Amino acid sequence: MKAVLLVALFLCLPVLAGAGQLTITPALIVPGEVALLRWSDRGAVAGEVEFNGRTFDLDPAVHGGQALLGVDLGMAPGTYPVRVRLAGSGFLIEGQVRVVTAQRPEERITLPESMVSPKDPAVIKRIERDQALLKAVFANHTAGAVPETFRPPVDDPIGSRFGLRRILNGQPRSPHAGVDFRSPRGTPVKVSAAGQVAFLGELYYTGLTVVVDHGGGLFSLYCHLDQIDCVAGQILRPAEVLGRVGSTGRSTGAHLHWGVKLRGDRVDPLALVTLLDGKKP
Ligand SMILES: [Zn+2]
Fold this sequence. Notes:
alpha+beta, Glucose Permease (Domain IIA), 2 domains, globular, disordered N terminus, binds zinc ion
C-alpha cells in the first residue's frame, strides 16, 4: 500500500521544462476521464495545447493558467505527451498524461429489433441528419474558462454508469457515453454549470434534447426530455432548469441521459464533477 502511495506521489510531481511547470490532475487517467492542466506562468496565458495529435488554442481572455483535457472513452492505455506553448513568454511546458486500463462492467439489453437496427430509409436518413446537425453544433463553441463547479442535473439514483459495455440483442454496441439517472417523468433538469443553449430539438435516438455550451469546447447534453424549458441561445445560470425528465426517443421508460463532450471527446460527466469539486486546496 505504501509503495503504491509513493508511486502515486511520484507521478503527481510536476514535470519541469523551461521556466514553467505543468501539473496534471489526476496523475493516472482512465479513458473517459478529464484531466486538469495547471501551469505556473499565469502572466502569459495566450498560446496552445498539443495532445494526442491535436492542438487547441488557449484564449488569452479566459485561460488563467489552466485548461481541461479530455481523454476519450476509446483511447488506448499508454503515456501521452502534452505540451503547453505560451505565446507571451514563448515558454514550452511539457508533461505526460498516463492513461490506464479501465474495467468497465457489461450490460445486456433486449429491445425490439426495429429499435436496434433501423431498416426504414426515412429513419436512416433522419439519423444521418441528426448526426450532421450535432457535428455542426460541436464544431463551434464560445470562449470560456474552466467552470468553478460542475454538478449532476438531478439528485436521483444512477441507473447506468458511463462506459458500460453494451450488448444489444446479443450484439456488442458502442459503450454507454453518458450517465443515466432513474428519474421520474417531470423531474426538473438543472444545467450542470453556467452556459449557453447551443441546440434544442427532437432527435431520433435521444428524443427531446438540449445541448449546452460551457465555453472552451466543453458541452453537456440532456436527453429523452419530456419538455424543454429553455430557448435557443439562452444564457443559463448554474443549476437553472432547462427541461423535464421524460422518455422521448429510443427509450424504454422515463430516465435522464446526461452526457459531456470535451472538444469532441466522450467523457464521463461524473469525472468532471469529481475533478472540479476537488480541485480547490
Ligand atoms: Zn444513457
